[in-house]
Specification:
This protein is of the alpha/beta class. It contains nine helices and nine strands. Helix 4 crosses helix 5. It starts with 9 loop residues before the first strand and ends in a 10-residue tail after the last helix.
Length: 248
């Protein structure tokens, strides 16, 4: 009996990205299995956000390819949700928390149909899941940083994607919001979702994630946290003799 080989959630081959002829990512090879909660870690300027944008096709590479479940991103758009950096969003745009979350349903509807009761119900459930239902009619400009981040997580949840790409979702949030977000991410992983998270707090990597990718323009290492989150790879990535307390 021949069993069909299932492609990984994300496969990146020979990816190179440059800004003004300066390489930001250089010859990246990366295989991300389905169903992992993965951190991308590295110093400032390592290309972490660029890698996320290259996977999404926001940035065109000089060379290389990205496949989502064995196909180009353009053919798999409905399977991918994205939570951008909070600083890249215009929070003064006059719209409510519920409206922002309902925007997450547009991809499945197309641009002609408008969200109806089914989409509104799903959006309200997503707001409830992130603890923001009471703020559904609040203007997003009136929300705190942590509340805004929860709204964007709810917008991603309502897409019911297979892969979630998140660019520093814990940046500028309080400890309560951080715990709430990671608990939701772990729930999604239990459901078989794949989560790829740009992360900067090395101390919490072993607690939050089961997979990690070390990046500094080049790919340093990628794999299970228990196997590769160690002083050697930290030193290779950050360029100094790095020590971190790892509680596993």
């Amino acid at each position: 009996m021949i069993t069909e080989h299932k492609p990984p959630a994300v496969q990146i081959d020979d990816l190179t990205v440059a800004y003004n002829y300066k390489p930001v990512l250089w010859d990246i090879d990366l295989v991300i299995p389905e169903g992992v909660l993965m951190a991308i870690v590295g110093p400032n300027g390592a290309g972490k956000s660029t890698l996320i944008k290259a996977i999404l096709g926001i940035i065109q590479p000089l060379a290389g390819s990205v496949q989502i479940f064995g196909k180009p991103y353009k053919k798999q758009v409905g399977k991918v949700a994205y939570v951008p950096q909070k600083g890249s969003v215009d929070w003064d745009f006059p719209t409510t928390a519920l409206d922002v979350v309902m925007m997450g349903t547009y991809g499945s509807l197309g641009w002609i149909k408008r969200p109806g009761q089914k989409e509104k119900k799903a959006s309200l459930e997503a707001l409830d899941k992130v603890g923001m239902l009471a703020f559904k009619n609040r203007q997003i400009s009136q929300l705190s940083g942590g509340q805004q981040q929860r709204i964007f997580l709810a917008r991603a949840l309502v897409q019911n994607a297979s892969i979630y790409l998140m660019d520093e979702p814990f940046q500028g949030v309080d400890a309560t919001t951080e715990k709430a977000i990671i608990n939701i991410l772990k729930e999604l992983r239990k459901e078989g979702k794949t989560l790829i998270v740009v992360h900067h707090d090395l101390q919490t990597v072993p607690e939050y994630f089961d997979w990690v990718t070390f990046l500094n323009v080049k790919g340093i290492a990628s794999g299970p946290v228990k196997d590769i989150f160690n002083d050697d790879n930290l030193t290779k990535t950050y360029g100094i003799n790095y020590k971190v307390a790892v509680n596993q």
